[in-house]
Design brief:
The complex is a heterodimer of chains A (304) and B (226). With 304 residues, chain A is an alpha+beta fold. Helix content of chain A is 75%, strand content 8%. Chain A contains eleven helices and four strands; from the N terminus they run ααβαβααβαβααααα. The chains are: A alpha+beta (304), B alpha/beta (226). Bound molecules: adenosine-5'-diphosphate and magnesium ion.
């Protein structure tokens, strides 16, 4: 009995959608646009956090040591630094290791290798590479490192990584804000369009609704088709959004890959592995928005 | 069966459609309600199916006080009262069978019951041979008969007919009245709102006369007096 009613409700709601087909198409396009902008926002978020994560990972402080500094002093300095609270790890790069990594880095550059050879001796200095525990304590770390007074220290390279991070965060925040604004705008338009679609559907069914009321159909039965329409719009909107988003992501992925080179982020992979979560949530959210808009329209235009 | 006590209905801002109306209609009665246009007859019908709410007084139907019932109860009430209005209100894209079936479908009745009841009620109104026609392929009188058939699908104890012959010529009108009498003979209480003098006089049943929202006459075997 309930199942039967439910199937009839779905049938009525599909009839609604088909009868006002143009309005339905416009409604679905708007929902798709809203979802598309939401996904754009999500893409920005994913790229930002990947970029920030990568930059954070690369942040370290280098202490360059005097070329002739003896090994035992270097190791003493190393353990002194390791004892600082805000230090996570200290790596010692010996002269030998430095030259090897230099050779490795420039192995395709014969001119530089030739110059190195002509120099006859190892021109590089040993160094200590210090990783901070928490990027937010970076300033404290710099202060502590500056306090260390040791003759073997040749120079201190405290690049302002914080400024870079701030810049990235700043750009990301701006992009997110714009995305959020556009998404909200589309959600708002969606509410209005769905509201209007349901209103028109109710008007085209005025006779049916009048008869339904007269013969004692329950309020639920009269209203449910329009609420179901909202859910069907959401479903179709999500399906169309998926159909559009995948080619779009494949299109931008190569540009992203080259722009963020060295950064392990593949937005397509991200979508693939979170497919159900992303589009499931989007479907739920869109359904909720549509059903709420339908409820208001139905409450206003189909009084029993 | 139907009992109105001191019913007053005022449409905003200040149109008094009914004023302190008292009425008692017994089960199985055939009652005509007559009166000029705009005197509150349709308002009376709407109060009985709770399409409008009274501003004062009490309405009891079959022992059930419906004066202030809620949404859910309204649909229960309407399955017990068949209503026929002057404008036929059929769905033009559905056949007569589908039109009558629609009333059962939207109340969640199973298809088996629908296939059983629809031909029965169409037979009562003499449309059993035209049930697969569309409303625009039959006469106005036949359309009104289909509406009566639809009003009967829930086997109501009360049938309210508000000017059912208003848009029909006298031959078609007579047929409709005959059908209403037939339904009344089955035991259904019938309330016929009309301003057709001939119809009322021929019926020789109880007549309630309304004038300016007041009941001014109530005769057991009445005549149209206005
Ligand atoms: N929905 C309404 N809003 C305001 N006034 C109404 C409404 N329905 C009816 N009326 C007024 O109430 C009075 C009675 O109307 P009605 O019951 O339709 O009379 P009848 O059916 O006897 O012609 C009329 O004056 C009419 O204009
Ligand atoms: Mg009237």
């Amino acid at each position: 009995m309930f199942l039967l009613s439910f199937l009839r409700v779905i049938k009525f709601s599909l009839q609604d959608i088909a009868r006002n087909i143009w309005l339905s198409i416009i409604t679905i396009i708007i929902i798709t646009l809203a979802l598309f902008s939401v996904n754009l926002l999500l893409t920005v978020k994913v790229l930002t956090s990947a970029t920030v994560g990568a930059v954070k990972d690369k942040i370290d402080v280098s202490l360059y040591l005097k070329s002739e500094a003896p090994e035992n002093l270097i190791l003493a300095l190393k353990s002194q630094i390791e004892n600082i609270d805000s230090v996570a790890k200290v790596d010692y790069i010996s002269k030998q290791a430095a030259i090897e990594s230099f050779r490795e880095k420039h192995k395709n550059d014969p001119e530089i290798l030739q110059a190195l050879l002509e120099l006859g001796k190892n021109p590089l200095s040993p160094g200590l590479i210090i990783k901070p525990k928490d990027i937010n304590n970076y300033d404290d770390l710099i202060v502590s490192l500056n306090k260390i007074d040791n003759d073997i220290i040749e120079s201190r390279n405290f690049d302002d990584h914080k400024a870079i991070l701030a810049k990235i965060n700043n750009i990301a925040d701006k992009a997110s804000e714009a995305g959020l604004f556009i998404s909200s705008l589309f959600v708002l338009i969606t509410i209005l369009v769905v509201y209007n679609a349901v209103r028109v559907a109710i008007f085209t069914h005025k006779r049916e609704i009048g008869i339904m009321k007269l013969v004692g159909a329950s309020t639920w039965f009269i209203r449910a088709p329009y609420l179901i329409s909202g859910v069907i719009y959401a479903l179709l909107g999500v399906v169309v959004a998926i159909i559009i988003i995948y080619p779009f992501l494949s299109l931008i992925q190569p540009y992203l890959a080259s722009f963020f080179s060295g950064l392990k982020v593949n937005i397509l992979d991200y979508y693939n592995s979170n497919f159900l979560l992303i589009f499931g949530l989007e479907f739920l959210a869109a359904s909720l928005v549509n059903v709420l808009a339908s409820l208001v329209a139905v409450g206003k235009y189909s009084k029993v | 069966m139907i009992k109105l006590s001191n019913i007053t209905k005022i449409y905003p801002p200040d149109i008094t459609a009914l004023h302190k109306v008292n009425l008692h209609i017994k089960p199985g009665e055939f009652v005509s309600v007559v009166g000029q246009s705009g005197t509150g007859k349709t308002t009376l019908v709407k109060l009985l199916i709770s399409e409008e709410k009274a501003d004062d007084g009490k309405i009891v139907i079959g022992g059930w006080d419906i004066t202030a019932i809620g949404q859910a109860e309204i649909s229960v009430l309407r399955r017990q009262i068949g209503v026929v209005f002057q404008d036929f209100k059929l769905l033009y894209k559905k056949t007569l069978f589908e039109n009558v079936a629609f009333a059962l479908q939207v109340c969640g009745e199973p298809q088996r019951k629908i296939n059983n009841i629809v031909p029965q009620v169409l037979k009562i109104v003499g449309l059993e041979n035209k049930m697969h026609r569309y409303p625009l392929q039959i006469s106005g009188g036949e359309q009104q008969r289909a509406v009566i058939a639809r009003a009967l699908v829930h086997r109501p104890k009360i049938l309210l007919a508000d000017e059912p012959t208003g848009n029909l010529d006298s031959i078609n009108a007579d047929e409709i009245i005959e059908i209403l009498q037939k339904i009344n003979k089955f035991g259904t209480t019938v309330v016929l709102v009309t301003h057709n003098r001939e119809v009322v006089n021929k019926l020789r049943k109880r007549v309630i006369t309304i004038e300016n929202g007041l009941v001014v006459g109530d005769q057991a075997v009445g005549k149209y007096v206005l």
